[in-house]
Specification:
This protein is α/β, with parallel strands linked by helices and 257 residues long. The protein is 50% helix and 9% strand.
């Protein structure tokens, strides 16, 4: 099968279902951005090599220690290679948690700036070097736009818990003691992004993220909260190349530029 584009999904989360959770959330974002999006036309790919997977852990990808330089260099080269592919066009989505409240992200959030200075800069240098050898330096910005961070605040549960109806049903199965908290979040969805370690506030913990990210996930309501989910979708919509490829999944007469 010929795909319209490849989506390489990387996550710092080491949980067994983390990869599928992020991929599922990303598909929901694409469908929200374009209601005719066809996910089967996209080749979603995980990071296969174990050594590189380790490099995406939070203790490594944002590390400045010399002992980690070799594996981080290899990760950067891998990502750069994917971004430079054109048949099919390939995007890399890198999930990491903001690890701060949404309202405090500019004052105390360090992960996003570290990603830009340590990860994106390294990848950019690799891409520039390869394009320079090809005499295609003018493509640098276009290629780098295919690297898209996905950053929930405080963490990925801040997004999965937006599926409040499913969360209520699961809570009833666990303890049934968090109805008031879930109602509070329902009245102010952005408030979920203001909870440090939200998995500790709810009996669901980290056990049901894939379930919550799946059927019934309210992408429109999560976006309407105007917090980190909204910011992630807005960031994706800034990438014209991505919008073109999403459209190509359903418009067979459309030729993306």
């Amino acid at each position: 099968m010929t795909y319209d584009f490849e989506a390489h999904v990387l996550t710092e989360d080491s949980a067994s279902e983390a990869q599928e959770v992020v991929e599922t959330l990303l598909k929901k974002m694409f469908l929200f951005m374009d209601g005719r999006f066809q996910s089967h036309r996209v080749d979603f790919r995980p990071l296969g090599e174990a050594r590189l997977k380790i490099a995406t852990l939070p203790s490594l990808w944002n590390s400045s220690e010399a002992a980690h330089e070799a594996v981080l260099r290899d990760l950067g080269q891998y990502i750069a290679t994917q971004l430079l592919r054109s048949e099919p066009v390939t995007f890399v989505f890198f999930h990491f948690d903001g690890d701060s409240k949404w309202s405090e992200r500019l004052a105390s959030g360090i992960n996003a700036p570290r990603f830009e200075s340590r990860v994106r800069t390294r990848i950019r240098n690799f891409v520039r070097g390869i394009l320079s050898k090809r005499g295609e330096e003018d493509r640098l910005e276009q290629v780098m736009k295919r690297l898209r961070p996905l950053v929930p605040y405080y963490c990925v549960e801040s997004w999965t818990y937006q599926n409040l109806d499913r969360a209520r049903a699961l809570c009833e199965q666990h303890c049934g003691e968090h109805a008031d908290l879930l109602d509070k979040w329902g009245h102010d969805r952005a408030s979920v992004d203001e909870v440090e370690q939200p998995w500790a506030a709810l009996c669901l913990g980290k056990l049901h993220n894939l379930d919550l990210a799946g059927a019934g996930f309210p992408a429109g309501e999560a976006y309407g909260a105007g917090a980190s989910y909204w910011a992630a979708v807005e960031s994706l919509q800034e990438c014209d190349q991505l919008l073109e490829r999403i459209r190509a999944t359903w418009d067979r007469d459309y030729s993306a530029g």
